[in-house]
């Protein structure tokens, strides 16, 4: 199914055992004007959705490696096929880890270099605004969204990092402080086509005034994450 | 019943935060001899019957597809536990 208008765009949100942020992701889709569709990890049918969000959490308790077991869920076979066909896919935190384990994105995440769980409001620079999930931001725009993880250190070999930089696929970079030791301050990346994006921080927790990070308009007023979801709706209308 | 041992270690070039924490704790207990620690994983895969060449090949395949992530880890050992001397360390010492 192809979305004709904003109202009809259906965004799937996959729930794995141990996923925590699926309802927040669905709420973000709704606040942006889309229709969230709950997808279950054991179901290999994507139910005709136009895009997919893999939300954060600790799927399978992070056993083996973060995202390693979820990657083999029936829903992921369908997501991998759809992503290769150009469907927008966003992996947030544990979802990003699942995307790297599924080889839709390069590199991997290991434990934070300081070994602590970190939970804070994090400033990022949006360095690529041509992806399906970032086209509503201005190039270089600074956004503040929550970050919370234990295994958030992005690692890849130098050749892969050079390739990502050279092709403009570093989509988000940490500003001010690198919270986990990620190589080259990388917070999020995309595939070559720009339809698959993964990042460690959580845009879905910064979509409604009163419930977001502290912002210019006062405490909890930050809604910098909403642009992810309005971006994908815009990209679906164009497609 | 047969058993295959698979061992996975973080790649040398990847910082191992867990090993770093352990090496920091050792001197506090008086173990000052150790200058570095790297922490890996050991899997024991059980099979009904004997560990054949076919079983070892399947274990190798499982080791590189699921048990390890080649971006950050190396599979350093896939072996039959019964014939592998390194697998028989007991509480009393090496048997």
UniProtKB/TrEMBL annotation, chain A:
What is its pathway?
Purine metabolism; IMP biosynthesis via de novo pathway; 5-amino-1-(5-phospho-D-ribosyl)imidazole from N(2)-formyl-N(1)-(5-phospho-D-ribosyl)glycinamide: step 1/2
Keywords from UniProt, A to Z, are: ATP-binding, Cytoplasm, Glutamine amidotransferase, Hydrolase, Ligase, Nucleotide-binding, Purine biosynthesis
Q: Which InterPro entries match?
A: Class_I_gatase-like (IPR029062), PRibForGlyAmidine_synth_PurQ (IPR010075)
Name the source's superkingdom.
Bacteria
Reaction(s) the record says it catalyses: L-glutamine + H2O = L-glutamate + NH4(+); N(2)-formyl-N(1)-(5-phospho-beta-D-ribosyl)glycinamide + L-glutamine + ATP + H2O = 2-formamido-N(1)-(5-O-phospho-beta-D-ribosyl)acetamidine + L-glutamate + ADP + phosphate + H(+)
- UniProt-annotated location(s): Cytoplasm
Pfam families in alphabetical order:
GATase_5
What are the catalytic residues?
93 (nucleophile), 202, 204
E.C. number, please?
A: 6.3.5.3, 3.5.1.2
Predominant subcellular localization, coarse grouping? cytoplasm
Subunit structure of this entry? Part of the FGAM synthase complex composed of 1 PurL, 1 PurQ and 2 PurS subunits.
Function, as annotated, reads: Part of the phosphoribosylformylglycinamidine synthase complex involved in the purines biosynthetic pathway. Catalyzes the ATP-dependent conversion of formylglycinamide ribonucleotide (FGAR) and glutamine to yield formylglycinamidine ribonucleotide (FGAM) and glutamate. The FGAM synthase complex is composed of three subunits. PurQ produces an ammonia molecule by converting glutamine to glutamate. PurL transfers the ammonia molecule to FGAR to form FGAM in an ATP-dependent manner.
Q: What is this protein called?
A: Phosphoribosylformylglycinamidine synthase subunit PurQ
Which organism does this sequence originate in? Isoptericola peretonis
Q: What is the lineage of its organism?
A: Bacteria, Bacillati, Actinomycetota, Actinomycetes, Micrococcales
From TrEMBL, chain B:
Q: What class of enzyme is it?
A: ligase
Q: Which UniProt keywords apply?
A: ATP-binding, Cytoplasm, Ligase, Nucleotide-binding, Purine biosynthesis
UniProt entry tagged with the keyword ATP-binding: yes
Q: What is the designated name of this protein? A: Phosphoribosylformylglycinamidine synthase subunit PurS
What does the similarity note say? Belongs to the PurS family.
Q: Subunit notes for this chain?
A: Part of the FGAM synthase complex composed of 1 PurL, 1 PurQ and 2 PurS subunits.
Query: What is the originating organism of this protein?
Result: Isoptericola peretonis
Asked whether the keyword Nucleotide-binding is assigned, the reply is: yes
- Gene Ontology terms for molecular function: phosphoribosylformylglycinamidine synthase activity
């Amino acid at each position: 199914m192809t979305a004709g208008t904003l109202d009809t765009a259906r965004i799937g949100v996959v729930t794995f055992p141990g996923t925590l942020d699926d309802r927040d992701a669905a709420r973000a889709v709704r606040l942006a004007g889309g229709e969230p569709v709950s997808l279950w990890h054991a179901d290999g049918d994507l139910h005709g959705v136009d895009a997919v969000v893999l939300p954060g959490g600790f799927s399978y308790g992070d056993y083996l490696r973060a995202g390693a077991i979820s990657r083999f869920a029936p829903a992921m076979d369908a997501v991998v096929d759809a992503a290769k066909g150009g469907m927008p896919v966003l992996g947030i935190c544990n979802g990003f880890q699942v995307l790297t384990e599924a080889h839709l994105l390069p590199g991997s995440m290991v434990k934070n270099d300081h070994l602590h769980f970190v939970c804070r409001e994090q400033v990022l620079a949006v360095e690529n605004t041509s992806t399906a999930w970032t086209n509503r931001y201005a190039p270089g725009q600074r956004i503040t969204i929550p970050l919370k993880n234990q295994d958030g250190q992005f690692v890849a070999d130098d050749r892969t990092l050079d390739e990502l930089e050279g092709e403009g696929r570093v989509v988000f970079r940490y500003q001010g402080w690198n919270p986990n030791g990620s190589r080259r301050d990388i917070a999020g990346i995309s595939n070559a086509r720009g339809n698959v994006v993964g990042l460690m921080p959580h845009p879905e927790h910064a979509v409604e005034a009163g419930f977001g990070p502290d912002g210019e308009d006062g405490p909890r007023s930050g809604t910098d994450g909403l642009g992810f979801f309005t971006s994908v709706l815009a990209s679906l209308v164009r497609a | 019943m047969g058993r295959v041992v698979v061992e996975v270690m973080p790649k040398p070039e990847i910082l191992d935060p867990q090993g770093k924490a352990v090496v920091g704790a050792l001197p506090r207990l008086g173990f000052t001899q150790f200058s570095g620690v790297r922490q890996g994983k050991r899997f024991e895969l059980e099979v009904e019957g004997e560990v054949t060449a076919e079983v070892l090949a399947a274990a190798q395949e499982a080791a590189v597809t699921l048990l390890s992530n080649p971006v950050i880890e190396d599979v350093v050992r896939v072996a039959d536990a019964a014939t592998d001397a390194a697998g028989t360390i007991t509480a009393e010492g090496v048997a």
